[in-house]
């Protein structure tokens, strides 16, 4: 992550942390709203997960809105892991640098703009065969 300054990395880490907190608050509210006893216990754990992966705690929850938030939390946890590993901000496809502006907009981005567009094009073609 040599291309990111220490300050930029800290700013992005903070953005990820804040988003994670927001998502957990949302999930907590949704679990409590569901009215199920077992969900109430989980809601407490989500508020204070300690070293546990929040995403892993919630894999069995069948609430669409929670599933969506869990997917985003998973991406955040992966990004935080990459920060810890020192691989954050490096494109997983080409190994190139992901620009700071892109990371500010998408702090969980795993690919540079070029590779992301390539990937989306590939998927678009798969979804619409041209035969
Ligand atoms: Zn790339």
Structural overview:
With 131 residues, the chain is mainly α. 66% of the residues lie in helices and 0% in strands. The protein is built from six helices and no strands. The chain has helices at residues 6-33, 37-47, 54-57, 64-85, 100-105, 113-127. The longest helix is centred in the N-terminal third of the chain and has 28 residues, at 6-33. The radius of gyration is 17 Å and the shape is globular. The chain starts with 5 loop residues before the first helix and ends with a helix. Zinc ion (ZN) binds next to α6.
Mean pLDDT: 90
Bound molecules: zinc ion
Beta content: under 5%
| Spatial separation of the terminal alpha carbons | 43 Å
Counting H and I runs of at least 4 residues, what is the number of helices? 6
* Overall number of strands: 0
Amount of helix? 55-70%
Low-confidence stretches: none
Structural class by SSE content: mainly alpha
Shape field: globular
Report the major sheet. none
H/E topology pattern: HHHHHH
Radius of gyration: 17 Å
